[in-house]
Amino acid sequence: MNKLNAGLIVLCLTILSGCCSTEPITRTVTVTKVQLEPPPESLIPSCPIPRFTGNTNAELTEYTLALLKTLKQCQSDIQQLRDWRSGVTQP
Fold first, then answer.
1. Contact (CB, 8 A) for 74 and 58
2. Interacting residues of 85 by C-beta distance below 8 A, sequence separation 6+
């Protein structure tokens, strides 16, 4: 009976050992990389300063208005850059 028991145990272990081995699990991993790119050239402000060429108070007033217009345009360009940057950095 000992030989029969030993044979059955070996047979069961052989059969069960085939169930133990599994193939490795294959997983697909996606990595997201955020890359900041420089702003387009059209958004980089170049603020030309108007030259004052006048001699009168009226011309000085026109010059001041031209400076204010240039300043507003530069502020608009900078705000566009900030808006672009906040849109890129937020998920």
1. no
2. 39
Give the separation between CA 54 and CA 60, rounded to whole angstroms. Answer: 7
The domain spans of the chain are: 42-91
This prediction's pTM: 0.48
Q: Tens digit of pLDDT for each residue in 12-59? A: 777 766 666 667 788 899 999 887 777 777 767 677 787 888 899 999
CB-based contacts of 47-52 (< 8 A; 24+ apart in sequence):
47/71, 47/73, 47/74, 47/77
- Any residues with CB less than 8 A from the CB of 89 and at least 6 apart, and which? 36
Q: What share of the chain is helix, strand, coil (3-state, %, to 5)?
A: 60, 0, 40
| Nearest by Cα to 89 from 37, 18, 54 | 37
The SS3 call for residue 27 is coil
